[in-house]
């Protein structure tokens, strides 16, 4: 990313810093380039060490996977770390300790330790039908008698040993089970079947039992099918049917042994329910345990193992193709695989460090390989592109040093952006533990990947350079036969071994030296080199005094360039800079901004933990199970109850609006069901001001000739829970009665919006601060401005389009947005630096040159990155779906800006390309005397240089 440009001229000279500041900047540029040049020579002089040391270190640290640990506390990861809801939860737990209670707590005041829970539904009929009732009691008996063992104990543990006890030292069992046992006993003895009331019923021992949370979809025998309270004593007013039943089994978990036994019992509980559901297809079973969220959250990593390997394989195949060309000697297919190997080794090293430091793993770490992959591939393709622009008659050490001098400053700048964004998000300022741990680990991985790119991949470039110098095949490493021997080979062999062998021997051998001659040493002429002041500038020809934008200067054989470079050079560059195409690109950008703004205005927070777990798991099935609860809204008492419940809350209620509608027309609000429903459907919902309420009402069609039932729905349940929390908290501060508000969901809701968005804001501010600082010290000011605007535009587009794609703003999407800053800087930074570094000719010409030099590596990175994402999209997990969508949008938006928007906008926006007067001292040449040692067989030109 980091780079500079020559002094501005013409109308942009006003932006040029003072001469003294410019001189200091030139000294800094020259010092950094010289340092990377020396580093490149040092790596090229010791390639064996730099190739073997990272491999050995990765193997040693990889052995630490015996200490691999998975994060157990999911709540600490996904809930805001500092919130009032956690303090309230601790207070509730101290006041109402479930594990020490001698009485049943019918509502989940807090997370009740270890438990097993199941929702049972009837595929047809009611769960209280005799056949279903007997089946449910059979299931309860099997669960009660189920036994488990642990490796450290020889005892068998059943539910009676693990259960919570009441004051009579008996296991606490849901009262609905006792009521069902009484009904079954009465039926078996042909006795009077007891009446089951809702929500409070009376058991045989005279105790009043609340079963409101244990039955769902209840229909009563009262007038109109309404459900009456416990004070209605008529026998005909009991429960007629119920669509769902919930059973809960609370366990003790005191001590380490009991906790391990309870954990084993929960696993056996889920297995037992799975087997029972297979034998009884007429019932639907939806289990959940205290470990379900943790297991289902980590299960995404298990599901993603094979797709990640497939991603690595597909990316490897495409990387090989991107590094290949027709010329078998200059083709570098192994460098594509070695780039992936470098990323893999750095990931293994980072994982080993985490294991040794006692860190734990969680499923959000699935995004880290893609952060490393995008950044590592960008560096490798940039190095390969720079290698192809070096002189082939130079020694390998000089070519590698030139590559380091040309690429590593930009690569270091993009790495610094990654570390700045991730580092600030990993600071204590972040209130979300999952975000903090992800960014800390990703920053470590990116740092190691950068070091391995300098050492391991740099040494691999040295080895492949020696293969190229020795005229060896780029894939098979076999020496390519000379043209006179190749002519006698078959056509397929000549095609496989195609290279410009004869041209090179004629062009680079000194006069009088033929094939097969003994290597000799020649004293050659004194030549000069030009050292440009621009840090980000890469001269097309190493010895050119006046660098021209023509790419042919850097590649004397354009006919043998690989496919992507040829397409960009001959087709895409001319097309994207065409005068008639520019208006359409600008229009496309306006459409991009419009849709991004549309999505940005609809961003919603995703505080539901079930959105981050694997699909088809207990957590998702249990959470998404919807019990359709029809209510007799035409009943006056029900209307009063609903209005009383919602008193004091800001709301837009269809029921309240409908009742006011009836009152304004002097109609009674308490009507028969047929009249109430008919007026609602045919009059109220057809009024334009009330038509929007149609989405809030579900009508369930009944039999022919019968009126439909209907029930209310809530579209944004999490937002309503957040509003409920804020409303109740305000009431707790103004009420004369001191009360506490708590629900397990409040832990994930309280201050969630601020906790999940603050790391993104901090990272964005860190990048802008870094770009502003670099504009004063290193980077050309307008490059920083352009790059900052590009990052904002990419971030805005990804955030808007992910909302339109159905992705909420949760911790996983925020992690992707943070990594998108570094990814877009990788793709766009070199293009901007390459464009700004040029002087002379037109903007259009330099846009084409920048696309050839830096647009092609960015395109290669985006192609490999996108292909690697494809297998991840097939994983059945909400977390990986969020990851796939956000990273796909990141790649797409970055590609649009790098390959379309920036090349078009730069053709008519600053900086200027007008050549100004040459500054004093600029462009001076240094006389360099070289003694060249030419080897006619290997094309090695070893230079003994004196200045």
TrEMBL record:
State the InterPro entries in the record.
Patched_domain-protein, PTHD_SSD, SSD
Instruction: Give an example GO cellular component term for this record.
Output: plasma membrane
Q: How does it sit in the membrane?
A: Multi-pass membrane protein
Residue ranges of every copy of the SSD domain listed in the record: 325-463
- One short Pfam family name for this protein? Patched
Q: What is the predominant subcellular site recorded for this chain?
A: membrane
Keyword tRNA-binding in record = no
Family per record: Belongs to the patched family.
Tell me what this protein is called: SSD domain-containing protein
């Amino acid at each position: 990313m980091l780079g500079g440009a020559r002094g501005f001229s013409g109308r942009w000279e006003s932006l040029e810093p003072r001469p003294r500041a410019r001189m200091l900047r030139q000294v800094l540029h020259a010092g950094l380039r010289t340092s990377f040049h020396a580093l490149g020579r040092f790596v090229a002089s010791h390639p064996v060490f730099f190739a073997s040391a990272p491999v050995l270190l990765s193997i040693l640290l990889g052995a630490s996977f015996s200490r691999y640990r998975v994060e157990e506390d999911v709540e600490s990861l996904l809930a805001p770390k500092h919130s009032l809801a956690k303090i309230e939860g601790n207070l509730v737990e101290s006041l109402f300790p479930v594990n020490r209670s001698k009485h049943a707590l019918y509502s989940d005041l807090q997370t009740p330790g270890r438990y097993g829970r199941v929702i049972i539904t009837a595929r047809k009929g009611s769960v209280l039908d005799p056949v279903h009732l007997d089946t449910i009691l059979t299931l309860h008996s099997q669960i009660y008698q189920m036994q488990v063992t642990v490796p450290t104990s020889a005892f068998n543990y059943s539910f009676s040993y693990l259960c919570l006890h009441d004051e009579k030292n008996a296991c606490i069992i849901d009262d609905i089970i006792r009521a069902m046992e009484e009904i079954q006993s009465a039926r078996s003895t042909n006795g009077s079947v007891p009446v089951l009331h809702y929500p409070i019923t009376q058991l045989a021992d005279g105790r009043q039992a609340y079963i409101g949370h244990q039955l769902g979809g209840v229909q009563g025998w009262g007038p109109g099918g309404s459900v009456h309270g416990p004070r209605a004593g008529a026998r005909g007013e009991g429960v007629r049917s119920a669509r769902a039943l919930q059973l809960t089994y609370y366990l003790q978990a005191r001590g380490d042994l009991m906790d391990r036994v309870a954990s084993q019992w929960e696993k056996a509980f889920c297995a037992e329910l799975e087997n029972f559901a297979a034998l009884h297809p007429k019932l639907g079973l939806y289990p959940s345990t205290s470990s379900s969220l943790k297991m289902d959250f980590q299960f995404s990593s298990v599901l993603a193992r094979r797709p990640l390997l497939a991603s690595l394989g597909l990316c490897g195949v495409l990387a090989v193709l991107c590094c290949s060309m027709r010329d078998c000697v200059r083709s570098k297919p192994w460098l594509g695989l070695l780039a992936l190997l470098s990323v893999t080794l750095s990931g293994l090293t980072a994982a080993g460090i985490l294991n040794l430091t006692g860190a734990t793993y969680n499923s959000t770490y699935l995004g880290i390989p893609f952060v490393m992959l995008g950044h590592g591939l960008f560096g490798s393709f940039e190095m390969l592109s720079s290698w192809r622009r070096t002189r082939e008659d130079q020694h390998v050490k000089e070519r590698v040093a030139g590559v380091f001098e040309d690429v590593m400053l930009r690569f270091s700048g993009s790495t610094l952006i990654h570390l700045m964004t991730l580092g600030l998000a990993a600071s204590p300022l972040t209130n979300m533990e999952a975000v903090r741990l992800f960014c800390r680990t990703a920053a470590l991985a990116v740092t190691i990947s950068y070091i391995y790119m300098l050492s391991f991949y740099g040494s691999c470039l040295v080895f492949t350079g020696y293969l190229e110098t020795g005229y060896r095949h780029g894939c098979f490493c076999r020496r390519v036969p000379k043209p006179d021997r190749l002519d006698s080979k078959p056509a397929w062999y000549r095609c496989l071994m195609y290279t410009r062998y004869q041209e090179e021997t004629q062009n680079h051998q000194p006069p009088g030296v033929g094939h097969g001659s003994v290597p000799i040493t020649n004293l050659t002429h004194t030549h000069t080199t030009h050292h440009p002041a621009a840090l980000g500038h890469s001269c097309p020809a190493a010895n050119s005094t006046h660098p021209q934008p023509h790419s042919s200067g850097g590649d004397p054989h354009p006919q043998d360039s690989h496919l992507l470079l040829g397409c960009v050079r001959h087709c895409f560059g001319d097309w994207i800079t065409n005068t008639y195409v520019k208006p359409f690109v600008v229009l496309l950008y306006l459409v991009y901004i419009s849709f991004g703004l549309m999505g940005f205005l609809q961003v919603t927070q995703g505080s539901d933990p079930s959105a981050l777990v694997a699909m088809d798991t207990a957590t998702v099935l249990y959470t998404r199970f919807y019990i359709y609860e029809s209510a007799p809204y035409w009943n006056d008492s029900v209307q009063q109850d609903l209005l009383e419940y919602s008193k004091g809350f800001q709301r837009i209620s269809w029921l309240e609006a409908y009742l006011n509608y009836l009152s304004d027309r002097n109609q009674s609000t308490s009507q028969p069901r047929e009249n109430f429903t008919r007026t609602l459907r045919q009059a109220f919902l057809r009024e334009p001001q009330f038509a929007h309420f149609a989405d809030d009402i579900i009508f369930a069609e009944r039999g022919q000739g019968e009126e439909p039932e209907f029930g209310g729905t809530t579209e944004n349940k999490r937002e309503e829970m957040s509003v409920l929390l804020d409303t109740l908290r305000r009431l707790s501060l103004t009420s004369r009665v001191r009360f506490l508000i708590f629900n397990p969901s409040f832990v994930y809701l309280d201050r969630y919006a601020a906790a999940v968005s603050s790391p993104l804001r901090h990272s964005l501010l860190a990048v802008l601060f870094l770009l502003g600082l670099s504009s004063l010290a290193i980077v050309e000011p307008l490059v920083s401005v352009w790059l900052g605007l590009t990052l904002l535009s990419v971030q805005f587009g990804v955030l808007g389009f992910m909302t339109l794609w159905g992705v909420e703003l949760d911790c996983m999407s925020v992690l992707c947005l943070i990594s998108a800053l570094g990814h877009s800087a990788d793709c766009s930074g070199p293009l901007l630096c390459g464009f700004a570094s040029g002087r002379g000719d037109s903007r259009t010409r330099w846009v084409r040159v920048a696309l050839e030099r830096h647009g092609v590596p960015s395109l290669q990175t985006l192609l490999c990155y996108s292909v690697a994402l494809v297998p991840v999209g097939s994983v059945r997990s909400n977390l990986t779906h969020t990851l796939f969508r956000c990273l796909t949008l990141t790649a797409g938006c970055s590609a649009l800006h790098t390959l379309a928007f920036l090349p078009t906008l730069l053709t008519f926006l600053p900086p200027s390309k007008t050549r100004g007067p040459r500054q004093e001292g600029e462009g001076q040449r240094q006389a360099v005397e070289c003694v060249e040692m030419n080897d006619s067989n290997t094309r090695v030109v070893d230079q003994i240089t004196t200045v």
